[in-house]
Amino acid sequence: MTNVVINSISSSPPYTLTSLKDETEIQKWSEFCASCFSDKKPIPPPSSYFSRHFFNDPMRDARLVFVIKQTNNNNDQHDQHQHHNNKNEKDVDHDVIVASTRVFLREISLGHGNTCWAGGIGEVCTDPNHRNKGLAKHLLHCAIEAMQVYEHGHDKGKLQCSLLHASPTLMKVYETSSNYKGVTTHWTVLPLNGISSNNNNISTKLNIRLASFPKDTFQLQRIHKEYSEDRFVGCIIRSREYWNEYLSKEIGDSMFVLYTRSHKKQDTDNTDNNYDNDKVKILSWMSLKVRSDTRIQLRDFGCCRKSCMEENISMVTVFSMLLGHTLARTTTTMDGQPAFLSSCSSLSMELAIPSVVYQELKSSIHVNSNNNNNNNNNNNHNNDNDEDQCECEEKDNHKSPFEQWLVDLLLSEKESSSSSSYTPASSSSFSSSSFAVKEECDPGWMYKNLRQQQQQEEEEGSSSSPIWDQEILHNLHHLIWPADSF
């Protein structure tokens, strides 16, 4: 990847496209990225955000950061030298970065245990004074060429596809100029208004705390593989290094795990003798992100369904417990105040979660309802379990506000499609509009085949679409957790 002069742009001084030489140039690049986003957000990310984002990535490669520089001519260089007589020549940089993009190396899921390696396009930015000149297009084409020949390990081979997330206004541009194809991710938006964040009681046998790395990594990695990687296409494959070096630092201060104490030793590779993690069984985790003054997004989630069944705990209970705990500790980026207040009944707060998670919650509440009915019928003919039944009834009558809200919401939507009606148990806290569930589609994730057609046919023995194409572009269950976005 050598310097390339862009001859197609008529400009004086000329533009030069190149990749960074090594990680010593990351600081300057980070400062440029921060300056570009300073006019796009109320509180723009500092340069430390971009440098942290780079150095936390275990798959980072400075050669995959591409920049366009405006090269000054000799006269400009002489003038600049005269104005910097008190500085060393090495401190004077005559080539100014005016545009940039970065390639992220990721392994992505194709479902059913299949994976492929991909190059993600991210952190695309252009200096405001140099926009509308086609610089981003040149950067993208250069990045694609680099990804097509890039080898990232003797046992991994070449990148098979590229992916990016585009805004609606740019999707057509990526499609026509670089043959990227879009895929839709489905989200469900739930109303949060009318709920108090107070008194979110938790079961005595369950606990919630911040995730601890690397102590929790083994269990989190295993659950994520079963819950997300094996079921959803597009999902980022999380290695142990990715958990410990990237996620722990990017969202570790907002990731809460729900766990119970097990009587048997858990599978772990923990080497910290001072940490009693052998009998900690993680059931689920959650991280939230504030998207606006009225919307919160489920940034990351995982649930060990097998462990929940063993502990006789429904997914609805697990989700609502984590939601109440996490919301109370999630702060906005605007003023540092809690994003969810007990007075939010006057606000139109919303929670966006992947639709596949919502459907799973609906299935869980329906299954539990049927099981409870069967249990009640059996208990009418068997008095040996009176004590257990009383405990179960006591728990049902003392749901936390969030669990009752979620149960009411799920059952209300089910009944709304039928002729019968459902009266929420917490009707005094909810209005009819509180149950307005919305479905939204995010068509922004786009993919491109990086392999040449001839090479593809030789590898697959036919001219059919590659496996990643068939699975990702034609599968409804596409999901890239926001925690993995780039």
Describe this structure in words.
This protein is an alpha+beta fold and 486 residues long. The chain contains 14 helices and 13 strands. It has a 13-stranded mixed sheet, sandwiched between helices. Strand 5 (114-126), helix 4 (135-149) and strand 6 (161-165) form a beta-alpha-beta unit. Helix 9 (315-327) packs across helix 12. The protein starts with a strand and ends in a 13-residue tail after the last helix. 32% of the residues are buried.
Structure summarized in a few sentences:
With about 475 residues, this protein is an alpha+beta fold. Helices cover about 35% and strands about 20% of the residues. Strand 5, helix 4 (about 135-150) and strand 6 form a beta-alpha-beta unit.
